[in-house]
Design a protein that fits this description.
- This protein has 207 residues and is α/β, with parallel strands linked by helices.
- The chain is built from five helices and eight strands.
- It has a six-stranded parallel beta sheet, with helices on both faces. Strands 3-4 form a two-stranded antiparallel ribbon.
- It is globular and about 45 Å long.
- The model has no long low-confidence stretch (mean pLDDT 94).
Amino acid sequence: MTSNSTRKLVIGLHGVGSNGANLAPLGQFLRQSAGDIDFESPDAPFSFGNGPGRQWFSIDGVTEANRPQRVVEARAAFDQVLGDIIARHALTSNLDRVALVGFSQGSIMALDAVASGRWPVAAVVAFSGRLASPEPYAPSETTRLSLIHGTADHVMPFAESEKAKAALAKAGISAELHTLPGVGHTISQDGAVIAANFLLTAFGARA
């Protein structure tokens, strides 16, 4: 794909048991709302159960203690997926025109990509996420972060985004935290609007 100096790339990262196609409506909304962006939402590399769902790392027997190591072990496959997409858009040397938008486990991987210092992209939006990466953190200070979380999320408690914000602040990177009262484990319309506005600002700041 030929690079266009004005276009930006947003990569959607789905949750456990889902697939990239499930984020297509969000991609359509972001394209309509955030200007000259391309949107891709790949399938995670690993199967989930016997159905069509995918996952970025196995949640079978996952605990607070072993989750960080699973994230580390998932990095190679995750980086391959991201690297291939970014290369197709001719943006390998222009990560300031790339953003990641994750949901749930996709947010875990998006936050890890930045916290580890591997992917100094322009921006990350983490819906219903948590920071599960092992320390030490080495984030790019130029990456903008937005954490969006519903207070009624019983799958990934809202407190996880509060803890992520605090941990990232200690590592030298500030993150916006948007509280969505009464919203569960989902990407709501209000959340999508917040994400679109955030991406417009983040890309504008890096233009």
